[in-house]
Amino acid sequence: MFTGHEFGDGLEPILRTLRAHNTKASFFFTGDFYRNPAFTPFIRQLKREGHYLGAHSDKHLLYCDWSNRDSLLVTRRQFEADLRSNYRVMRQRFGLAAKDAPYFLPPYEWYNDSIAAWTINLGFQLINFTPGTRSHADYTYPGLSNYVSSDSILASILQYERSRPAGLNGFILLLHAGVDPRRPDPFYKAALPRLLLFLQEKGYQLLTVEQLLLSASTQ
User: Cβ–Cβ contacts within 10 Å for residue 186, how many?
Assistant: First the structure.
């Protein structure tokens, strides 16, 4: 799955790569991302091609303190108003009904039990990526203390796959639909085609989040 808030430079190459591999993916965008006219044609193309489009908050709020997860930084009213705004712009600009986007990925992938409960009360299901690889570090760039190159990210995914009896079965990988221009090797250019080829050659069936979770619930 891919998230987007500020940057969307990867949309075109990601679409092209997914199409080449006959693969669907899930995209979770903020309201600001959905409003950006530069991204509009690509979002419409994602919808036409059957990819999952979901919510990632309206303004990419930080819900709780980084060092104290129990410490909320938003009120319930702020949280609900922000998330409703995200779904509103999805419906108004792209005809994406809330019932067709039941899964919500919180901004920064950082939340606590209050956020999860408030999400359920609004009728949505909070989800997150599966930990264990460095895939979510593809937004970093040299100069940041947590910078990870695309080759290192890909190596972490392949190593995880080899080290687990179940491999990547049921695994949700998080990547980004765009990155800071200071990153010299965007994963979507440097490694995504190699990753998809590896997964398909290993026999994995690549699903959207919706397909994965619905199939799991019926087993």
Answer: 24
3-state secondary structure of 188: helix
Share of the chain above pLDDT 70, in %: 98
SS3 state at 85 = helix
d(CA 18, CA 25): 8
| Residue the block writes with tokens 């994963």 | 187
Q: What angle do CA 149, 154, 158 make, to 5 degrees?
A: 150
Using one digit for the tens of pLDDT, what is the confidence trace for 54-89?
999 999 999 999 999 999 999 999 999 999 999 999
**Element holding 54 (H helix, E strand):** strand 52-55
Q: Return the biggest CA–CA distance within the chain.
A: 47
User: How far is Cα 211 from Cα 190, in angstroms, rounded to an integer?
Assistant: 27
pLDDT digits (tens, 9 = 90+) for 93-108: 999 999 999 999 999 9
Closest CA to 25 of 106, 105, 97: 105
SS3 (DSSP) at 41: helix
Q: C-alpha dihedral over 111, 117, 119, 121, to 10 degrees?
A: -170
